[in-house]
Amino acid sequence: MAPTSPAGFDEDADNSHSERVTKPLLDVISCSGADTTLVVTAARLIQADVRTFGSPELWLDQLSRRESDASIEPADVVMFVGSAERLLSQRCLQRGLVAAPDSIITAAITDASFDLTMSIVNHGARGLLVLPGPTERLSQHLKEIVDPAIRCRDHRRAVVRHRRAAATLTAAENDVLEAMLTGMPNKQIALRLSIGLRTVELRRSKIMKKMKAKSLAQLISFICLAQQQDGC
């Protein structure tokens, strides 16, 4: 298995935001001691930065620290490595989808029967490598996964960001928001909801602040993004 630093990062990982514009960042996670060497080698052949983790738990621990440490960037692609049976029994893909909605969740499996492959895909994998294999072929397949992830990186992260912001709105604020999105003026909103005009104004202000919107048009755009089912 590829060596993992105490913090769970590959020592060669580059945290430069400026280079991240075009350079992909991969989190490669070993499940049940699976060897990640082939995946890491393939990733470096396509000029990707790699962070390796010895277990899903180490990876989840890093994610838990991300909110308080802005230097920890979200990965473009998260790849769980191991047998399909292990990935399924440990619910690696489901955990990845919940924990890292701003990343593309993928798998590199060592037992590629048709049924197991379909199960991996049905459980959320949006890219798949089959191990072992020639490094050149693996790197090409990995590039086919990574390139779309880079192209839609900003959009995908915007979806997640606005979705999280929308989730902070209270039920009362959502009532006002629903009326706002129809273009209803504040006085009509107050009459419709049987609340005071000042209450509408305060809730409207809170909505704009939470969503970080500077205009109604921008708010509508952000809400549309938040309601998208997929970040790409």
From TrEMBL:
The keyword Plastid belongs to this UniProt entry's keyword annotation: no
UniProt keyword list: DNA-binding, Transcription, Transcription regulation
Gene giving rise to this polypeptide: fixJ_2
A molecular function GO annotation: DNA binding
GO biological process, one term: regulation of DNA-templated transcription
Name the record gives this protein: Transcriptional regulatory protein FixJ
Cross-referenced InterPro entries: Sig_transdc_resp-reg_C-effctor, Tscrpt_reg_LuxR_C, WH-like_DNA-bd_sf
PROSITE patterns, sorted: HTH_LUXR_2 (PS50043)
Keyword Transcription applies: yes
Residue ranges constituting the HTH luxR-type domain according to the UniProt record: 162-230
Lineage: superkingdom: Bacteria
Gene3D superfamilies per the UniProt record, alphabetical: Winged helix-like DNA-binding domain superfamily/Winged helix DNA-binding domain (1.10.10.10)
Lineage: Bacteria, Pseudomonadati, Planctomycetota, Planctomycetia, Pirellulales
